[in-house]
Every structure is written in structure tokens, then in C-alpha cells.
Amino acid sequence: MNRSSFSRRLCSGHPTVTDRLLQTVWLAFLFGVAAAYAQDPKSEEATREYARVISKAQSDLDAGREAEARQQLEATDRTLRSFEYDYLLARAKAPTANKAAPDLIRTIEKPKVDSRYAVLNEVDRQVAYICRDGGIRVYDLSTPEAQPATVMHEAGGAIWSGCFSRDGKTFVSGHEKGEVVVWDTKSWKILHTASTGEEWPVRELAVAPDGSSFVAESKSALELWSIVDSNPKKIAAVGERFNFGEGLAFSPLGDLIATGGMFDIVLHNAKTGERTKSMRHASYTMGLEFSPDGKRIASAPRGNVNKFLSVFDIAVGQSLFDAGPFENYVAGLAFTPDGKRVAATGPQKDVRFFDAATGEVILTVKRQVQTFKPAVSRDGRLVGWSEPEGYRFIDLGKEADGDK
User: Fold this and answer.
1) Cα 385 from chain centroid (whole Å)
2) DSSP reduced 3-state for 52
3) pTM value?
4) Torsion sign, CA atoms 66, 72, 73, 75
5) How far is C-alpha 349 from the geometric centre of its chain's CA atoms?
6) Which among 137, 139, 224 is positioned nearest to 180, based on CA atoms?
7) Helices in 75-190 by DSSP H: which ranges?
């Protein structure tokens, strides 16, 4: 019996015992789904109050009132704290001479050659600039003023994309003629070179957490490749290629691949490429990022109309919230390691930290230019992002000052 006929029988006034049992099960299911999405009002209110305190503390720091800011921060609920707490506390501890507390933002100047953007190695605190001369400029954030190491792909040509594996050991770069180059990040030697078969810029890339595979955009599709053997092997196509671009992400466990596109977030088996699930978002779903536990995925459409940020519960297949619309589309997403925040670049040019459960804006780092490609170090103590004139980062040091 289909659902519509079942509903007609219930409404007819003559439901059977079986119908009543089915009705009970169906209602229990609906209430269960509703409960899965419903946020605890007390929890939501606590998050809003915490965000208010963070905003007030930030204003006090900007006005040189460090003692007041520190007092407010230390009175907050420890369970609600994340990067913003450590960041503002570090600002409050910095010497100021009764002036505005320093913002602690540091800069790596853009290379002299034409470059697209920089990406962070979340494990080793390296920053790699991908450049149009076919080179990668690698900076060590422990000595950001030092000259970068430069490595070149012998075939030359512009690099269009690049990303580090989650374990920090592998870097994958996408080139203008359809090549994908796999690098060892300790030696910066080339491990593999794979060709997608056509001269087409590899604009989108994602690499497995352990560096064993990657997904790359070719002229005709998104392609999954294995690189565990000496010769890279194409496994399957895992999604359409769109002219406007698409999102790509591996889950932290390496078992799933997420792809975006016209309207949906599509999940694929990371070993076979087989499609396993889809979730409807908005048109031009391009920004995708898994939470550290792999149970949620952040999604940000990049069209001219839909300028939202959402976090989806993967098991249920629905969004927990829609934040926005914003002035500009979100140009990058990154979860903090504790899973509590989503760092987003681009929505109002600034860098924002959203509560990952409610969408509440917890912290805003004001910038004057467009920001993109955010990243958070694995220990949660460093946040970085790209800007047109350089890479900006906030480094709170590798050792936390006390428990959150």
C-alpha cells in the first residue's frame, strides 16, 4: 500500500487495526525526524548570549579596554568556547599602552610572479602559493619572513588549483593542460603525474586524507584516481563538470566524496565512485566541507542569487540551518577541529566564524578586501586565508594557554 492510499483510508473514518499501528509508527517517525532537527531553545539562547559576550569583548579590545574584555571572556561557559575565545584572550594579553589591542593578523606577501591563491598545510604549518609560471612557492609559517622554497613542474604551464591531504604529507596540483601532479611535502619531489587526457585547466581538486587518491576536474567530468601504485589509475567519473565550477571534498575518514553542481550535494563511495546519496541545496552549490567527525557537511552556493551558508546532517539528509543571504557569496569554508565553528570567507569581505549547529555568527574579523580559501590548523590554534595581495594568518602558538 502506498502512502497516499494509506492516508485516504485514515481520513475515511474506517481505519483498520493495522492502519492504526502503521499510523503510530508513521507519527513516531515524523516526530523523530522533527526532534533530530529541533534545536534546544535553551542551547540556542545560550549560544546567542555567548555570541553577544564575544562581540562585546571584541569591541572592548578595539577600544583598549583589555581588562574588561578579559573579565567577560573568562566568565563564559567553557563548553561554548572555540577559536574565538583563544583569539580574543590572546589579544587581551598583548601589550597595548591603552590603545586598541592588536588584531594579531600576520601577512605573507604575494609572490612577485602571477599567483592564484595560497593554501595551508594544516599539520605542518606550511603555506603553498600556486603560481601561473608552473611553480609552487612554499613558506614556513614559523619563519614567515624567510624566502620561500620554489619547486617547479618540468612541463611548465600555469597551475590552476592545489590542495594538501589531511595528513599533511601530500600536495596535489592541477595544471592548465589537464595534468595533475602529486608532490611529497617533506622533500617536495614529484611522486606522480597523471593526465586527464585533454588540454583543459584542472580548476577543482580534492585529495584523500591519506593521499591515496584524488578527484580532479577534467574537460568532461570529475574523475576519481587511485595513486597507491606506481602508475596512477583512473577509477571512475564521480560527477558532472559545470562551466561555473563545482565543489569537491573528501570526508575525514576517506570513505566519501562530496560533489556539488546545479542544485544538489551528491555523496559518492570514495573507493568505487558509486553515487550513494544526494541532498538538495540551492542552485550553484559549489563550496563543500566535511565536519571533522564526518557527520555533517557545510555547503555554500556561489550564484548571484543564492548567497547562503548551510550545514547538513548527512544521516538525515537535511540542513540544520540556512545562514544568509549575504552581500557576497561565500568563497571558502573550513571547520574548526572541535567541530563547533565554520570559518567562512567572502560573505561580506570579512572572515566570519559561524556556530556549526545554529548558524549564529560568533566572531567577525573585519577586512577591507575579498577573502577566500580559509583553513584552520589541526590543533585549532592557527587560522589563515587568502587575499588578493597576500596570505593572512592568525597564529596563537602551538601550546594553548590553559583549558577552554
Assistant:
1) 11
2) helix
3) 0.87
4) positive
5) 17
6) 224
7) 83-93
